[in-house]
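[Q] Does anyone have a clean structure-token version of this?
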Amino acid sequence: MKPVRILVDSTVDLPERCRAQVRAVPLTVHFGDEELIDGVTIDRRRFYERLIESDVLPTTSQATPAAFAKEFEAIRQAGESAVVITISAELSGTYQSACIAAADYEDIYVVDSRSAAIGSGILAELALEWAADGMAAAELAGLLTKKRDDICLLGLLDTLEYLRPGGLLGIKPVVTLENGAVTMIGKARGSKQGNNLLVQKVRESGGIDFSLPILLGYTGLSDALLQKYVADSAALWRDHCGSLEQTLLCSVIGTHTGPGVVAVAFFKNGV
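[A] Here you go.
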């Protein structure tokens, strides 16, 4: 059986300890005419500095088939197989780019996470665990395609400005992904009410499977809002896990959500 390599695109936000175990195919961020490669020519912190400094909102473009093909060729030359996990096809053409490139290769399996950011990240973390246990690529891809339906990704945004120009002042929307697309499921005024609403939505999801990966995320230059959420939601976690992993979300996600986001991703319990 061929060794299995896990590939992701650069929007897939993993815990820091896992990042060296995957190869990431980058998307691109544009500030006006300036083109920056996500995670390559601009890192996460510098992106949020630029986002705050810039008078022009950035835009993004998908990873290309050629970028995936370069990685796939290296995998073929190494005699390996691969499972590729991408951002939801409803949000980006990156999944389609990976599929186009994979058509020329054997033993390359592309999985649409139907999620994004840390939601895709916990699926990739699970893939790493299963690959380490010796699971073959085809079986791994099939199980991930089933398990993606159990992912719950919830985010509290500081503003609607980046999703919908001219957002509502003072309103903090709570969003999720349904069928791979962003859906607003609640609105709150202020961080305290927003954190309470986020906790409520976690409970309404059916609860958290603490045996599987959990990840928190934030955008911007400070994790203060995330730490406030952790404190406000302590009842969800304290009897089940000693600590919660967190990560700064990538520049592509930050482009479309703005700074001040608090997000949580987990696998739903009892599904």
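[Q] Thanks! Anything notable?
[A] The mean pLDDT is 93.
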